[in-house]
TrEMBL record:
Source taxon at top rank: Bacteria
Domain Amidohydrolase: 54-533
Gene Ontology molecular functions: hydrolase activity, acting on carbon-nitrogen (but not peptide) bonds
PANTHER family named among the record's database cross-references: IMIDAZOLONEPROPIONASE, PROTEIN LONG AFTER FAR-RED 3
Protein known as: Amidohydrolase 3
Length: 539
């Protein structure tokens, strides 16, 4: 390549740079990992072509920046790459048979884990399996069945290993499920997960790296070039570093180191000590974004102002006392890190804004975007205004609503479910809002998320159509707004010279895809840093 040449040239029907006011371009050139030039003339960059230039001449294609998934769990996806694929089951007998098949080839006493991206209402029985049922699949192995990041079901073998009996105290912020006889039924929620999960051996390093290779490629195949992984342990981050070194990542990763399960500022300080070695290790492919806290539960335990529709004595639960969370968040920001906090129900949203307001008052001059609200599921107009006034960014996840609407209506009723993730209200107020999936609770995919935000479709029909946004607004939430959230708007989010060459190529304009076609529409090519990471037909 000459000094003035290009490594990659794409000629297309339209190159949408996402620069406000700029008309679609027709050609884009890449040198190294950066965009070198764009042109309104499809042949306007031909002078950059050399014998070494890779040329894609695609007159009918549309080019967009690669998308960010600003709240997802790549680590979970990677772990699931080798786990029992129970998301394929249609009923509990099939669910158990998949576990039974794995048990047949697993040495006695070794743990069996399942994938996490399934919903019990997709099973014919419309419920989770019990410990007793898991025992019928195998009583020779401890079994860990995960659903999302807040729920486990384990068999009797696993309960016995963990020493969980009817006399086991319930951890603060957690739930131990019990049958009519008072004995544990295998169900564990939120802060009770640790009782069993700390016993599960981590997969070996090679297996985990291969899982990241497969999972990150799957994200990239849907158009996602950067993931913000919102629950990464220090051990997980060490594996990510090894995967980066091995060239196994097909997406960039911005990691939130998990403080889930911690209950005091002193414990958080210990976590921050571990994080010190990563403070100055920014790599365009992999870096630590900050620390992740959880304030309330998920679908079954989000903290609400009004009682649940299914149980008028229950309003979810807050995992932290307000004063303790203020101290813990302060510990993080005083060390120069950012904070993302899970707040799902409206009571949790209000409480988190109270916490953030106190932290901001006591720590004047914090950089913009230091304190982020993850989800903000049931935020209403008053909390919208508070978040904007405080300068608190929000991440929303329409795929989560799409996949779980029926489950959530059972807990919260249809009126509250229709108000979840009110994108229209955030956008109209000028909030710094960005979008993601919350996989494994919601299914990841660039256009799947765009389709959901523009239609408000769910598995049980349209919910809250007044909260829909436009296609162009949805693109912004996954590109320019997402890059701003990570503090990288100077590097990513638009297709302009000097920025990283994170590019997706679509066989036709997604904006013109009819109806539900957009939901499952994937790019033909995805480039990250100028490197082709997926193309149609690759895994």
């Amino acid at each position: 390549m000459t000094d003035h040449g290009a490594d990659l040239l794409i000629r297309a029907g339209a190159v949408h740079t996402l620069v406000p006011g700029q008309a679609p371009q027709r050609a884009l050139a890449v040198r190294g990992d950066r965009i070198a030039a764009v042109s309104a003339d499809p042949n306007g960059l031909d002078h950059l072509v050399s014998v070494d230039t890779q040329v894609h001449d695609l007159p009918g294609a549309t080019v967009l920046p690669a998308f960010d998934d600003t709240h997802t769990h790549l680590i979970f996806a990677a772990l699931g790459a080798h786990d029992v694929p129970v998301h394929r089951a249609r009923n509990i007998p099939e669910f158990l048979d998949l576990i039974r098949q794995r048990a047949a080839v697993t040495p006695d006493g070794e743990w069996i884990r399942t994938t996490t991206n399934w919903q019990e209402l997709n099973l014919a029985e419309r419920r989770m399996p019990s410990a007793a049922e898991l025992d019928r699949a195998t009583d020779r192995h401890p079994v860990l069945v995960k659903r999302g990041g807040h729920n486990d079901v384990v068999n009797t073998y696993a309960l016995r290993l963990a020493g969980i009996t009817e006399d086991t105290p319930v951890p603060p912020g957690g739930t131990i499920g019990r049958g009519a006889d008072g004995k544990p039924d295998g169900r564990l929620i939120d802060n009770a997960l640790y009782l069993v999960e700390h016993l599960v051996p981590a997969p070996d390093r090679a297996e985990r790296i291969d899982g990241l290779r497969l999972a990150s490629r799957d994200y990239a195949a849907t158009g996602i070039g950067t993931v913000r992984d919102c629950a990464v342990t220090p051990e997980d981050y060490a594996v990510l570093l090894a995967a980066r070194e091995a060239g196994a990542l097909s997406t960039r990763v911005r990691a939130l180191i998990s403080a889930l399960g911690l209950t005091s500022a002193a414990q958080v300080e210990d976590l921050l000590d571990v994080m010190e070695e990563w403070r100055d290790d920014f790599d365009p492919w992999l870096s630590v974004w900050g620390v992740k806290f959880g304030l309330d539960g998920g679908l079954e335990a989000g903290a609400t102002e009004e009682p649940y529709a299914c149980d008028h004595s229950f309003s979810g639960m807050l995992i932290w006392e307000k004063d303790a969370l203020v101290d813990a968040v302060e510990a993080v920001v005083r060390r120069g890190w950012r904070v993302g906090t899970h707040a799902y129900g409206d009571r949790a949203v209000r409480t988190l804004l109270d916490v953030y307001e106190r932290v901001l008052d006591r720590n004047p001059g914090l950089p913009a975007g230091t304190l982020v609200m993850e989800h903000g599921g049931l935020a209403g107009p008053e909390q919208h205004a508070r978040a904007v006034a405080l300068g608190v960014p929000i991440t929303i996840q329409q795929p989560l609503l799409h996949d779980t609407a029926e489950v959530e209506e059972g807990f919260w009723g249809p009126e509250r479910v229709a108000r979840l993730f009110p994108a229209r209200g955030w956008v109209d107020l000028g909030a710094q809002v960005s979008a993601g999936s919350d996989f494994p609770v919601g299914q990841f995919g660039a256009m799947r998320s765009v389709w959901g935000m523009t239609t408000r479709q769910t598995v049980i029909g349209v919910k809250g159509p007044e909260h829909a946004i436009t296609y162009d607004e949805a693109l912004t939430l996954h590109t320019t707004n997402a890059a701003r959230l990570t503090g990288e708007e100077h590097l990513r989010g638009t297709l302009t010279p000097g920025r990283l060459a994170d590019i997706t190529v679509w066989e036709r304009d997604p904006a013109r895809c009819p109806g539900d076609t957009l939901r499952d529409f994937n790019p033909t090519l995805t480039f990250v840093g100028g490197r082709l990471v997926t193309s149609t037909g690759t895994r």
